[in-house]
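tool=predict chain=A
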Amino acid sequence: MSAVVTDAFGTYRVDDFLAAVAAREPAPGGGAVAAVTVAAAAGLVAMAARFAADPAETEAISAEADGLRGDVTALADADTDAYGAVLAAFRTPRDDPGRRDAIRRALERAAEVPLRVAEAGARVARLAAEAADGGNPNLAGDVRAAVVLAEAAATAAAELVRLNVELGGLDPAVAEAAQAHVRAAAAARDAITGARS
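tool=predict ok
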């Protein structure tokens, strides 16, 4: 299978997506994988909420998780596009007077997308904590898996933000915002698992 993306990641079969990730192509990469991981965690949260003793009480949780799942899946495509723009900007001839600005703009976008993934990861982790509170004990493992996956994906996305911020000499507040999402996801994980970072 060619790793050239012609369809949205949301339409990929799992094995096709994994083959695209493993291919000798620059994308999809870490940002897309983090986005898809958050989407999977959101799916677990929605499922757990639907199995609550009174699903009507957790309907808002499942609805928000479903919305996040769709939103963050779209970010997998956005991340691939943003990375492609970075590569294109760096291919601009060195003597091009607009090269520096083009690179900076591309890196700003390349930082923005994983920042949104980190934010979504924190939101999914929070929803997992809400779903765990009084949720069906038979789904406790799924909720724990969701919160751990959401935190891990937020952490991975925040690392991508940090790298792009450093490479582009961007505002450090962008990287700090990503770290704030990681801390929020970790707090939700602690609420469920009782673990301490």
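The helical segments are 14-22, 30-50, 59-90, 99-132, 140-168, 172-193. The domain at 31-80+108-193 is CATH 1.20.120.680 (Four Helix Bundle (Hemerythrin (Met), subunit A)).
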